[in-house]
Amino acid sequence: MTGFSVLGIIPHLQDASMQEQIWMFDTLDSTNAEAKRRALSGASNGSVVIANCQTAGRGRMGREFYSPKDTGIYFSMILRPQIPTQEAVQMTAAASVAVCQAVEKVCGLSLSIKWVNDLYLDGKKVCGILTEAVGSVIIVGIGINCNTVFEGELAEIAGSLFVSGDEMRCRLAAELVNRISRLEEDILHQAWLDEYKRRSMILGKKVTVLQEPGSCYLAEAIGDKGELVLLDSKGKKKVLFTGEVSIRPTFGTE
Ligand code: BTN
Prior knowledge:
With 254 residues, the chain is of the alpha+beta class. The strands form two sheets. Strands 1-2-3-7-6-5-4 form a seven-stranded mixed beta sheet, with helices on both faces. Helix 4 runs antiparallel to helix 6 (166-180) and helix 4 packs across helix 8. The chain contains eight helices and twelve strands. The chain binds biotin (BTN). The site of biotin has 20 residues, from helix 2, strand 3, strand 6 and strand 7.
């Protein structure tokens, strides 16, 4: 194991008692999978699983999440929210804002959000979030590329924060613990919404909905629950609560 350890995280926790709920591994299949196993065995609200490397990191839409050792943060928190399920759908979007704030505080970098929860720096995705439910339990899984080098096709779309060192990873992991544990409170106070809109990189742009290849919509607004409001070419509204969009390249005067 590297200096990326619970001992390195503890000094940066806002609530020192959280250290008892952090499980850290050198290698795991997936921190989300481990968090699910632990949730099913009764792990408490706010428990965290962190790995230095994942052999089967999972992304959204059944994709793989590249998770090499020593260069990223692979983090999952078990949440047992008290808020109604209709409100809990906001967790995904609220988590994006919490991660942006953590990165800004620790690394001084300002990330943009591509709906729903992909985080970008300089046009490349540097962080992905996978929120999964196990009954009433929610697992918020976060993968941050701190200093990951990508090759081939991935290098065109994926990037890194380019912050190095275990100390930095420890500080960032601690800040994730501090902020993701407050997610339910953020939702109750709608404390995430304005910042989510401000950081959005798609509002006002033309987008394609991944589930409708070739489609073209204007990304008009983000609703109170984090839903995306789109307009088609005839001005007809379409509202998405889940899914994925990509920004359409612009040609000439389009
Ligand atoms: C995505 O970009 O599609 C979401 C990626 C989520 C990756 C993180 S890494 C920690 C946690 N464990 C996983 O297997 N996935 C999430």
